[in-house]
Amino acid sequence: MNAMKKSLTMLALAGLLGMTACSTDATKEASAPSSPPAATSEAKESATATSDPKKSASAAPSQSPSASSDASDASDASDEVAEFGEEWTYDDGISVNIAYTGGKTASQYASGAEATANQVRLFDVSVTNNSKEVFDPAMFNVDVNYGAEGTAAKRVFDSGSGLDGQFQGKVLPGGTQKVTMAFAVPIDGPLDLLVTTSPSWDHDEKLYFGEAVQP
Prior knowledge:
Oligomer: single chain
Structural class: alpha+beta
Helix content: 25-40%
Shape: globular
Number of helices: 4
Low-confidence stretches: 1-41, 46-51, 53-65, 71-75
């Protein structure tokens, strides 16, 4: 009997231990965290990249080339403006040169300088014909704007002071003509001068710009 009781007791203890082990394993499995789904992992990577300025910068699109284009346009514009005394030569060989020579008070017989009390600014305008054909400067055009507001200056004619300002006759190949032109511009202080010129209707306009000092 004692042997039988011992056997039954041992079996009961073994069963109890087995149940305890199963319960412990089940508890571990229940407490272990489940692996995150793929979508959650990708979302974390995206959030990390956004918070990291280096990664965000590397992923940003490149800037538009408009800034370099604007700089190029500005450079091209500066190439279209000459200084007084600089010679422009066209593709057909016709050259023009405008030099600012100062200011003066025209005579009482001057025409066109009423608004400036006969004060005028003077320009030496020349055309050189390096083409193979005779050039007619009859349509040579010069316009002057002055000051911060770009006021248009009237052309002044003063025969008594020798300011006729007209080209006479044609220019042969290799030849040059020069005239002095006067424009009604105040001479009581320095100001900016912008001269627009073209030797004929067939030639593009060219610009001369500079500061006119007080004579």
